[in-house]
C-alpha cells in the first residue's frame, strides 16, 4: 500500500499549494482583473471616413477573479484539512 | 409676360433655397455596423463597461441652420453587451433593464443651443428627451456634429450611393435612480451614475 505509506499531511499540503499557485497563475494570465470571467473581447477599429473609433466583438475566454478565489479557497481548505492526517506515514 | 414673371419667381425660389439650404434627413441605421453607444459604470468595487450596436433613427440637420436640428435616435436594448455572459443576462433581465417590457431606449432631439460652427464642424448643446424603461427625462449634452458632404460613397465603397454623412459625437451622464434602473441597489458594484458616450454616423443618400 504505497498510498498509505506516504506522509499524507505533507502530500496534501503540497497539493494545496499547487492548487493555490494554479489559481493565481490562471488569474494573472487572464489579466489579473477585479471582475468576473469574460467570454468576449473588444478589438478597437477605426472607420476611416468618419474617423469613428469603434470596437468589434470577438469570442475569447479570459478568466477572472473566480479562478483566484477557487485557488485560494480550495487550496486553503485542503491545507487546513491536511492537519487531520498524521505528520508521519502510517508504516 | 406672365411666363417671364413665373420664370423670375421660379429662379428666385431656387436661389433662395440654394442660399438658405434645407434640412437633410440622416438615417442612423448604419449598414456598416460601426455605430456604437458605449456605457461605463465605475463603482467602488467594480467597473462595468459595455456597448450597444442597435442604433437607428433619423435626424434632420441643416448645415446653414443647425439650430433647427430635430430628430430621434433609438437604441435596441437587446443589443446591450457586456463581456461576462452572466452579467449580460442579469443586465437585460427584469430587475435591471427589463428588455422584455422595455425593448427600446429613445432620445428625441428637440433642438440645439449655444451653436458654434467652424467649417463643417458644429458644436452645440443638444437638448432633448431621453426615455429609458418608460421614464422620460430632459437631457442636454455637449455634442459635436460633423457634416461630411458627398462622403457617403467613399465610406460605403464603389457600389454605395452618393450622398452625405453626419457624424454625432457626445458624452453625457444619467443616473440609474432617475430611470428606475434597480435604484438604490448594489451601488457598491453597479455605479449610480452611468457615463454614456456615442459616436454615430447617419447617412443621407441623394
Task: Give a short synopsis of this structure.
The complex is a heterodimer of chains A (91) and B (206). Chain A is 47% helix and 23% strand.
Can you describe what's shown?
- The complex is a heterodimer of chains A (91) and B (206).
- In chain A, strand 1 (38-47) and strand 2 form a beta hairpin.
- In chain A, 47% of the residues lie in helices and 23% in strands.
- The mean pLDDT of chain A is 87.
- With 91 residues, chain A is an alpha+beta fold.
- The radius of gyration of chain A is 22 Å and the shape is rod-shaped.
- Chain A has helices spanning 2-5, 8-29, 65-81, and strands spanning 38-47, 52-62.
- In chain A, strands 1-2 form a two-stranded antiparallel sheet.
- Chain A starts with a helix and ends in a 10-residue tail after the last helix.
- Chain A has one domain (9-84).
- Chain B has 206 residues and is α+β, with helices and mostly antiparallel strands.
- Chain B has a single domain (22-205), classed as Lipocalin (Beta Barrel), CATH 2.40.128.
- Chain B has helices spanning 2-20, 85-92, 152-156, and strands spanning 24-27, 36-42, 47-52, 55-61, 70-76, 80-81, 104-118, 121-132, 135-148, 163-175, 193-205.
- The longest helix of chain B is centred in the first third of the chain and has 19 residues, at 2-20.
- The radius of gyration of chain B is 21 Å and the shape is globular.
- Chains A and B meet through strand 1 and strand 2 of A and strand 3, helix 2 and strand 11 of B.
Descriptors:
heterodimer; A: 91 residues; alpha+beta; two-stranded antiparallel sheet; 23% strand; rod-shaped; B: 206 residues; Lipocalin; eleven-stranded antiparallel β-sheet; 11 strands; 16% helix
Q: How would you summarize the topology of this molecule?
A:
The complex is a heterodimer of chains A (91) and B (206).
Chain A: H1 2-5, H2 8-29, E1 38-47, E2 52-62, H3 65-81
Antiparallel strand pairs in A: 1-2
Chain B: H1 2-20, E1 24-27, E2 36-42, E3 47-52, E4 55-61, E5 70-76, E6 80-81, H2 85-92, E7 104-118, E8 121-132, E9 135-148, H3 152-156, E10 163-175, E11 193-205
Antiparallel strand pairs in B: 1-4, 2-3, 2-11, 3-6, 4-5, 5-7, 7-8, 8-9, 9-10, 10-11
Amino acid at each position: 500500500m504505497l498510498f498509505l505509506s506516504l506522509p499524507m499531511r505533507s502530500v496534501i499540503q503540497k497539493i494545496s499549494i499547487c492548487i493555490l499557485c494554479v489559481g493565481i497563475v490562471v488569474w494573472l494570465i487572464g489579466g489579473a482583473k477585479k471582475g468576473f470571467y469574460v467570454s468576449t473581447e473588444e478589438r478597437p477599429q477605426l472607420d476611416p471616413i468618419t474617423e469613428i473609433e469603434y470596437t468589434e466583438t470577438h469570442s475569447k475566454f479570459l478568466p477572472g477573479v473566480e479562478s483566484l478565489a477557487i485557488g485560494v479557497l480550495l487550496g486553503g481548505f485542503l491545507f487546513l484539512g491536511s492537519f487531520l492526517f498524521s505528520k508521519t506515514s502510517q508504516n | 409676360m406672365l411666363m417671364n414673371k413665373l420664370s423670375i419667381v421660379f429662379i428666385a425660389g431656387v436661389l433662395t433655397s440654394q442660399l438658405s439650404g434645407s434640412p437633410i434627413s440622416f438615417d442612423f441605421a448604419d449598414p456598416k455596423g460601426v455605430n456604437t453607444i458605449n456605457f461605463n459604470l465605475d463603482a467602488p468595487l467594480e467597473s462595468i463597461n459595455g456597448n450597444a450596436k442597435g442604433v437607428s433613427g433619423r435626424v434632420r440637420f441643416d448645415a446653414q441652420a443647425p439650430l433647427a436640428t430635430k430628430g430621434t435616435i433609438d437604441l435596441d436594448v437587446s443589443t446591450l453587451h457586456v463581456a461576462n455572459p452572466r452579467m449580460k443576462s442579469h443586465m437585460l433581465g427584469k430587475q435591471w433593464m427589463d428588455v422584455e417590457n422595455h425593448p427600446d431606449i429613445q432620445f428625441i432631439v428637440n433642438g440645439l443651443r449655444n451653436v458654434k460652427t467652424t467649417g463643417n464642424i458644429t458644436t452645440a448643446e443638444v437638448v432633448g428627451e431621453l426615455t429609458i424603461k418608460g421614464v422620460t427625462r430632459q437631457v442636454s449634452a455637449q455634442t459635436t456634429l460633423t457634416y461630411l458632404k458627398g462622403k457617403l460613397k467613399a465610406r460605403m465603397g464603389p457600389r454605395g450611393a452618393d450622398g452625405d454623412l453626419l457624424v454625432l459625437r457626445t458624452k453625457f451622464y444619467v443616473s440609474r435612480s432617475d430611470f428606475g434602473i434597480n435604484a438604490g441597489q448594489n451601488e457598491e458594484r453597479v455605479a449610480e451614475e452611468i457615463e454614456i458616450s456615442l459616436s454615430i454616423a447617419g447617412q443621407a443618400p441623394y
